[in-house]
Amino acid sequence: MKHDKEQVLKIIREYFKDQNDISTVYLFGSVAKGRTTSHSDVDIAVLFVPGLSLFQRFERRLELANDLADRLKKKVDLVDLAEADLFFIHQVMLHKEIVLDKDIERRVSFEVEKRRNYFDRKYFYDLYHRQALKRLGEKGRK
Description:
The protein has 142 residues and is α+β, with helices and mostly antiparallel strands. It has helices at residues 5-16, 30-33, 54-72, 86-94, 104-140; strands at 22-28, 42-48, 76-80, 97-101. The chain has one domain: Beta Polymerase, domain 2 (2-Layer Sandwich). It is built from five helices and four strands, in the order H-E-H-E-H-E-H-E-H. The longest helix has 37 residues, at 104-140. It starts with a helix and ends with a helix.
């Protein structure tokens, strides 16, 4: 089933409004950018409320992704931002759409902390990427 961005947002918002263990929901990826194809999945990132164990968050993440896939009739990739890589979090923050925000203070605090951490390490990310591209270029000339 094909959904436009507004339909997807409405379904996600409606689904998460009563999920008491979720504080913030982000949409990112091709749907957020409005560049979907028939093969596009729906990329969602969540911040859980404090106090849940890693195992509880893992189980809920699977449950939430399956429920949403049933509702959207599309594959859903749901990420627990508390467990995501810093570079990945930065990419989500650049291209996100906030779908639901039940705890603005928690969200802003999380985003500020992760952005600070990212920019503290940005030099090393850039260095790594330059070296990786250089190695790829050298392999391409062989």
